[in-house]
Amino acid sequence: MSVQAQTDQLLQFFKIIGNESRLKVLGLLASDERSVGELAILLGLSEPTISHHLAVLRELDLVAMRVDGNNHIYWLNTTALEALNRNIFSQEQLATLAPEEGGRAWEAKVLRYYLVDGRLRAIPATQKKRQIVLRWLADQFEKGQDLPEAELNKRLKAFHPDVAALRRHLVEFKLMERKSNLYRRL
Amino acid sequence: MSVQAQTDQLLQFFKIIGNESRLKVLGLLASDERSVGELAILLGLSEPTISHHLAVLRELDLVAMRVDGNNHIYWLNTTALEALNRNIFSQEQLATLAPEEGGRAWEAKVLRYYLVDGRLRAIPATQKKRQIVLRWLADQFEKGQDLPEAELNKRLKAFHPDVAALRRHLVEFKLMERKSNLYRRL
DNA sequence: AATCTAATTCGACAGCTGTCAAATTAGATT
DNA sequence: AATCTAATTTGACAGCTGTCGAATTAGATT
Which among B24, B90, B105 is the nearest to A99, CB-wise? Predict the structure, then answer.
């Protein structure tokens, strides 16, 4: 089962039992099977409402139904519950629910956010993000290459209008160094 | 802890994690601690939204926070999760979530529903409920007591206008018997 | 001191969801 | 066949909640 599918299933399950009425229905059915009308009276709700909740619970296979005369008798599907009972909340299990692999995804997302059509939407304010973007920017230049300031400005302009800021940051992060009038990619 | 409190706590917990964003936040924090801004980018949500969710999670002690410079770093409170991990969905555990003790409560609720100010709101249509209500009605008469039909009618009228139906049902359920013109409570 | 940054709070809004009354359906009883 | 019963479906609505932009706050940096 894919991670996404697993997330969805778990999420769906929590959503469904994260409702007072449905949780109580499960509670009642845990001790004995019941008809719709009985549940309605016991919970002080209308029959349509109970019927609605039971339909939801049946979709997740948490309850089952049999017809008995005019009555529809519902009971708890204990096996389905037991299956969910094991280690749902262990930290390892939870980690698999992370949208993607947390570590690498972070840098990628930052870049994806700040880069539009190969240009910078802005220079990130926070150090952490700025470093990521600037590192990418530096990678657009060949290592060890020497460039006069005029040439560097011209190429930086393709990424962002504030070329002075970009130059300064590149040096700050030790991605480039300045020697007299020449900039060199480190 | 009272049953009610237990229900509430469990319900609250399910409600809180029954939300895609919050579940994903927990998933991310399961692998590493994160600042608000990081979570916002990783999940593609605004910082206010993330901040809001974190406040909710913190209320349940599912996450903790420390201040680091301008950043607020959140991490998973694993002990709180482990506490919840044990046998939440066992059938016995679930049964304790029933609104009250299922068995006796049923009859009481039916009576409470049909009796308003000592009178019957209606004669229940279903056999099961009708029997409960009629049994209560019969209990309003002394056992072994003999009553002429006129007297019985008079007393039944205090409970419901359709005295003929009540008389018939009382006999049906063998709660009273008719001998010539006399009704006797059995 | 003044500015800047990250986070939070506030206010507003759209979409979802739990609920019920009314209408309908499927089945049992007369 | 006609009636009655329990359940479901439909339609409507109120209340909740997740989301964001704007304003604010607390701290750090200059």
Answer: B24
